[in-house]
Amino acid sequence: MKEIALHALDIAQNSTAAHATRLDITLTESDGTLTLALADNGVGMSPQLLAQVSDPFTTTRTTRKMGLGLPLLRLAAEQTGGTLSIESTEGVGTTVTAVFLAGHIDCPPVGDMGTTITFLLQGTPDLHLCYRHRVGQRVFVLDTDQLHDQLGPDISLAEPEVILWIRDYLQEQELLLRENEEMKA
What we know:
Blueprint: H1 4-17, E1 22-30, E2 33-40, H2 47-52, H3 69-79, E3 83-89, E4 93-101, H4 113-123, E5 128-135, E6 138-143, H5 144-151, H6 160-184
Parallel strand pairs: 1-5
Antiparallel strand pairs: 1-2, 2-4, 3-4, 5-6
């Protein structure tokens, strides 16, 4: 995967497959690092699976015999001098944290997080998703509970007009984060 946003989507899809009803995605760009953290309340992993999860030949899927998401994320982070950590407890959930050294030539670009979050919401509109993006001291937060409060109980986040608004809003906020940080530099 060539972008951090695509890694985020892959790990998020693992969370929804693990029956998560809540997912927190945090992207932090600060002090020369990019940190992507995803925390869910899915079924979690056994200690045995957790010990093997970075092996590409370990997967819980029945449709194929390889699971490349976490091994590719680990490789991408480690190629920059960064790290990948995974914490998981059965019945509680899983947290995946990847740290990239932003100045390294092999550091992938962030990519289009707005489209990634939109795609995720469109496919799982009932997921409680909290997305945070920090750039330096600035932070943007999108919380689906707040969106549901504003829209009311009868309007799905997957409605075409709503999902288009969310996509445009996310892309606008991502652009503002970048512009504000560039103006400070």
